[in-house]
Amino acid sequence: MSLPLVIWDTSYVLLRPHSMIGGDLHSPIFVPYALYSTVDYVYGFPAYNGRDGFTGAQSSLNIVETLGYLIYLAIVWKVGTSQGPNGLERQIEGRWGAFAALLGFAISVMTLSKTTLYLMNEFCSGFKHIGHNTAFDILLMWILPNCFWIALPAYMILAFSREILQGLAIASEDPINQSGSPLASFKKE
Fold this sequence. Notes:
- Helix content is 62%, strand content 3%.
- It has helices at residues 3-14, 33-39, 45-49, 54-79, 94-124, 135-171, and strands at residues 81-83, 89-91.
- A hairpin with a 5-residue loop joins strand 1 and strand 2 (89-91).
- Helix 4 (54-79) runs antiparallel to helix 5 (94-124) and helix 5 (94-124) packs antiparallel against helix 6 (135-171).
- It starts with a helix and ends in an 18-residue tail after the last helix.
């Protein structure tokens, strides 16, 4: 779901200045960035003209992140078997299942860490790129959209952690903790 958005965002950044207002690639693909680049200067001319390298560095990591998610989806699609009443759920077992869970976990941690770094970069710079906005604009145009990039990866980290812990418990033949909960092993006997 988020892959097209990440590819679009990465393309905008790596194709600057051609993707920016006045650039030959701006219309029609990157027109929404005309507004967003005035809200968050990381995407606008102030950061670009100031040779702020953070935006390009972050987008380079987007490429690694996107490749990881594409590999994960390819494994789920090719190796997974259909489950559930409508067959939309897929299950992967064995080494491929372990690899998919580990890859999903690692890429989710990368997404959450990258977003946290993005937010902390703004905070530590004294809100250099968004401080010119009203509180309402910051909430609507910056905080709310970025919440998605925190909530979804955090949920995925928890889900993949449970799968990994459950697999490790089964592999170690731990009869107490095959639920995947790390706290279950600390029960009093």
